[in-house]
Amino acid sequence: MRFLISGGAGFLGSHLIEYLRDHEIVVVDDFSTAKYFELYSNVKLIKEKIENFNTNEKFDYVIHLAARPSPEDYTKYPVETMLSNSLGTYRTLEIARKSDAIYMYTSSSEVYGNAEIIPTPEDYWGKVNPIGIRSCYDESKRFSEALIMSYYREYGLDVRIQRPFNVYGPRLREDGSYGRVVSRFIYQALKGEDITIYGDGKQTRAFLYVEDWVEATLKMLFTKGLKGEVINIGSDKETRIIDLANMIITLTGSKSKIRYLPPRPDDPPRRAADISKAKRLLNWEPKISLEEGLKKTIEWFKGVIK
Ligand code: UDP
């Protein structure tokens, strides 16, 4: 099979590609966030922004992963964030349409905004500030979903949308300034720096280990009968950020102290996935506990942090 994977050199893409070694893959990535990418012999790499990319080549699968998913990163680059999730979605959809490919999009739990129903099911419409600081990400992901469903309705394209929730694991960028909570806390703990908590730390997230994400993604790609489906790929187990900080301090044996900072604007107070649809359609649920996943992630971080 031939795959086109936008953002294939990034955190999620680099893990996914490991499980697609029997296929021919073209990766389009601008390396804006990618850092730990191994170029296997079945992969051709094109360094370009997906919104500028065009080709007449044909593919069996088109997977659009390219995005800046870190809030601290995307709020610095809001225009670029919106372009990969609008023009980039359009370009990849057109390539899929001309190839009659299966199209898969990694949307985000961010489409739910400050959800009022936790764990959140796919049929919840979301509560999103359209002009807030996070809107460049939330609204462009929502636009992408609407555009993808339009291709499904107008052209009958085989589209599949997943909404990942806080995926973590090895190969998240280790540099603390990048900002995802798991990688930042591990970095700070291993360096003996203060662990920075925004707000009171009572906000929650439900974390998914990257190998569980890969398993769900492969099932979404290769299961028949998923045309037009939108599926949460996440965990239903909520963890408070303060509890995550304490777990990481314990697991690393760190002497780091906790430092409280002002809350981030529009930071969703709670987040967890209702995964009944993933269980039903994919026969999938996460297997790796937070403690187990953190241990594996910490081991990897120890190897890359100087
Ligand atoms: N967070 C924190 N300290 C940090 C980074 C993040 O307290 O140094 C919190 C953040 O406020 C949010 C949660 O951790 O409530 C998850 O943040 P992340 O940037 O990983 O992504 P999000 O889930 O908000 O998209």
Automatic annotation (TrEMBL):
A single BP term in Gene Ontology: UDP-D-xylose biosynthetic process
UniProt-listed InterPro entries: Epimerase_deHydtase, NAD(P)-bd_dom_sf, UXS-like
GO cellular component assignments: cytoplasm
CC cofactor: NAD(+)
GO MF entry, a single one: NAD+ binding
Membrane topology: Single-pass type II membrane protein
Sequence ranges assigned to domain NAD-dependent epimerase/dehydratase in this UniProt record: 4-234
Major localisation: Golgi
Compartments reported by the entry: Golgi apparatus membrane; Golgi apparatus, Golgi stack membrane
Keywords annotated in UniProt: Decarboxylase, Glycoprotein, Golgi apparatus, Lyase, Membrane, NAD, Signal-anchor, Transmembrane, Transmembrane helix
Record-linked Pfam families: Epimerase
Protein name, as recorded: NAD-dependent epimerase/dehydratase
